[in-house]
Fold this protein.
Amino acid sequence: MGGARDAGWVAAGLLLGAGACYCLYRLTRAQRRGGPGLRLRPSRSAEDLTNGSYDDVLNAEQLQKLLYLLELTEDTSIIERALVTLGNNAAFSTNQVIIRELGGIPIVGSKIKDPNFSIKEKALNALSNLSVNVENQIKIKVDSSFLSLYDGHVAKEILLRALTLFQNINNCLKKEGHLTIQPTFTQGSLFSLLYGEECAQKMRALVNHPDADVKEKVTIIPKF
């Protein structure tokens, strides 16, 4: 009798254990498929956030880590990946505000001067996304050398990014296809450069650019 009772308890234990394992399997499988259940996410370092496998929208803490990384690292591959991640996240209006409040706009803007072609392009792309927010536009500072990005001999990818930045800013200032006001801003601001005579001359010259994509971008921006 005692042996039969013991065997019964062992069998019951095995059944409970098997059931628990099956539930754990279902939960893990659901998480991998994006189904219902608790999503467990390990803590990620700033560099981990740039590796391309983290596809969630970043929160303020993660964005701050990324900005610190971008400011401190000298590794060009990490800088490029960080700018791509910031640019993607800057497409969301909430993160446009967060990045500005974290002081990220000058950090991103400083990379425009980087001699590395790819870094320059990715920095311009991130700034273009950030510039959709009107308050962010005021924070973007670049010196007169910024206008050299609109020279006709500049690589097409860089030129298109720079024109997109201009277009985004312009779209925020116009109504029904026309500028609602003629912007007047302090000397050295991005606005004073983009709406100054030197930039106007460059835009008029780009109308004759041999590349069709560049010409199309320029025609969208109002004549000066």
Summary: The longest strand covers residues 174-175.
